[in-house]
Design goal:
Layout: H1 3-13, H2 22-38, H3 50-57, H4 61-74, E1 77-78, E2 86-87, H5 92-116, H6 119-137, H7 141-158, H8 162-182, H9 188-211, H10 214-236
Helix pairs in contact: 2-4, 5-7, 5-8, 5-9, 5-10, 6-7, 6-9, 7-8, 8-10, 9-10
């Protein structure tokens, strides 16, 4: 029996009551922290408490620290000497950098994905897109943001370019957090209309990638970005509250 088949057999024979191996707990911890940061359950700049996470996931502190370092490398967490770990902050400079870099990175990543993507990649992208549409149908804001993030990140993996993928990953963290804020806003009907438009644009992106049409990919991605940008800037720069200076006149 090979190592791979032995590992598979061990997973299949473990009972539900058996404690999961440490590796499974580390994966669960990493994915949970990503979701909490992206969903703003952990606010930008907030402390990510190592001790409470150790207790919650049944891990000793060394594997928790390893996970923290991995997330710091991906841009989710900031680590500084002699200070507690914190979720990546959002400030004026980071937002300005985000809006400047986003269209360039999204287009470059998508064009490379059109060149290097495989049929299996397209199939997986369609699976993520189905989950995204399901989240829209069930009005699950957190899942909608999460699967939108996964959709664009997977296009990044299709690019087969580690340099751009690292930049995309950091970009998507703030994109998801801005989207989370916006999609909790009160303009429900208008927001839902835009979500359905975004989902249709995802389908157009998949079609362009499958066709390996680099020019069509660029046009579709930029159209999709402009929709997102408009909604995010509407949230970041809202109309001022109108107050009558002389209410009795």
């Amino acid at each position: 029996m090979t190592d791979k088949s032995r590992a598979t057999a061990n997973r299949n024979t473990r009972t539900d009551s058996s404690p999961p191996p440490r590796a499974d707990k580390k994966v669960q911890l990493e994915e949970t922290l990503k979701r909490r940061i992206v969903s703003m359950e952990i606010a930008p700049g907030a402390v990510v408490d190592e001790i409470s996470l150790s207790q919650e996931f049944g891990l000793s502190r060394p594997p928790v620290r390893e996970t923290m370092r991995a997330l710091a490398a991906q841009g989710y967490i900031v680590l500084e000497a002699n200070r507690a770990a914190r979720a990546a902050p959002m400030n004026y400079q980071s937002l300005r950098s985000f809006f400047l870099a986003a269209p360039m990175i999204y287009v470059a990543i998508s064009q490379l994905a059109a060149t290097h993507g495989t049929a299996e990649d397209i199939e997986e992208l369609r699976r993520i897109q189905a989950l995204f549409r399901q989240a829209i149908d069930t009005r699950d804001t957190a899942s909608r943001v999460y699967y939108n993030n996964q959709f664009h990140y997977f296009i990044g993996t299709m690019s087969r370019n580690d340099y751009l993928l690292a930049s995309l990953n950091r970009l998507l963290i703030d994109h998801a957090r801005l989207a989370q804020n916006f999609y909790l806003s009160p303009a429900v009907d208008e927001v839902r209309k835009d979500m359905l438009t975004a989902a249709d644009q995802h389908d157009e992106i998949i079609e362009a990638l499958e066709q390996r049409d680099v020019e069509k990919v660029e046009r579709t991605v930029l159209t999709h970005w402009h929709l997102s940008r408009q909604r995010m800037t509407d949230y970041v720069i809202p109309d001022g509250v109108q107050v009558a200076l002389y209410p009795n006149e």
